[in-house]
Amino acid sequence: MLLFGSAVSMGQIEPIKYGNFENWITRYIHESSLLGGNTQTLYEVGPTATIDGNKPYVNQGGSPWGTSNVFARPMKIAKGSNAVSPADRPGKGKCAKLESKLEHVKALGFINMDVMVAGSMFLGDMIEPITSTKNPYSNMNMGRPYTKRPKNIVLDYKLDMPANPTRTKATGFGSKKTLPGIDEAAVYMYLQRRWEDENGNIHAKRVGTAGRTFSKATDWVNGLRIPVVYGDCSNKPSMDWLGLRSKDDAYYARNSKGKLVPVIEEGWDSADAKPTHVVLMISAGNGEPFVGTEGLTFYVDNVGFEQ
User: Fold this and answer.
1) I need a labelling partner for 276 at 20 to 30 A (CA). Which of 40, 90, 96, 217 fits?
2) Distance of alpha carbon 45 from alpha carbon 25, whole angstroms
3) What is the DSSP letter of 275?
4) From edge to edge, which strands make up the β-sheet containing 291-292?
């Protein structure tokens, strides 16, 4: 799979394939009659195309991008959820729009629940259909093969924040709760050196780390650079939210047998190590799953790595 397009000579920026967000796949999911039988429109990052029908999505056209948009089928009830979509960027074509929003699910009185969804995009793919809100990471194949050592993540962004922001926790189980404080949008990257043991478990050491959070509304900022720190970054207070992931918060990836298993980060690699994979997440939320600030909207465009 080709992760990048052609390098741009100025600054040697490698744009991630489809990372200019000019092309989108439009999906039409027909929800169960118990939910009213509506048709939900979902979007995926990839070559311009249309998919009509309740079909599990598989990345198209060599796109390296997965999104939090999903076709779900809890208790065999078809439902579509969309929090990532194309948006017009005046004078510059299209961009990606990521929203934090409440999804309402109500079916003839016997299902009535709210789920907080933070729109996100990542390098990888989502495994559909989703049948449960339990352990959402286990439905995501996170990361792509990658062996370079970039200096920076590069992107354009804009952030809209609601006037009176709070956080909402809504998992679909029990009533929703209002929590103090605001959520943040986030962009972060892990460069990992992965290996697989004889039992199919995937291990990794962290080679490089980059990340930034966004909590103040702003108009478009072009060419933001987020530097990559190589080796152990645990002594940097500004990066304490980017620690190793190895237990309940471990991301998942396919092993050589095609099974999704947790990627256990065993520790920090040497600062001059060569990675085997890259994990990149862009999200309208930066907390635990199903917690977010309703109305927070993060726009991104022109995502790449500077070598």
Assistant:
1) 96
2) 6
3) P
4) 177-179, 167-169, 291-292
Distance from the Cα of residue 33 to its chain's centroid? 30
Q: Coil, helix or strand for 137?
A: helix
Buried b (16+ CB within 10 A) or exposed e, 237-252: eebeebebbbeeebbb
Question: 10 Å Cβ neighbour count for 145?
Answer: 12
Q: Which pLDDT value is given to residue 3?
A: 66
pLDDT in the model for residue 2 = 45
The secondary structure of 76-128 as a DSSP string is G--EEE--EEEEE-TTS-EEEEEEEEEEEEEETTTEEEEEEEE-EEEEEEE-S
User: How much is the pTM?
Assistant: 0.91
Say which amino acid occupies 40.
Answer: Q
Q: Express each pLDDT in 172-227 by its tens digit.
A: 666 788 888 889 999 999 999 999 999 999 999 999 999 999 999 999 999 999 99
Pairwise CA distance, residues 44 & 23, whole Å: 9
CB 208 within 8 A of CB 149: yes
Q: What is the topology classification, in CATH, of domain 16-306?
A: Jelly Rolls (2.60.120)
Mean pLDDT of 31-39: 79
Reduced to 3 states, what is the DSSP secondary structure of residue 220? strand
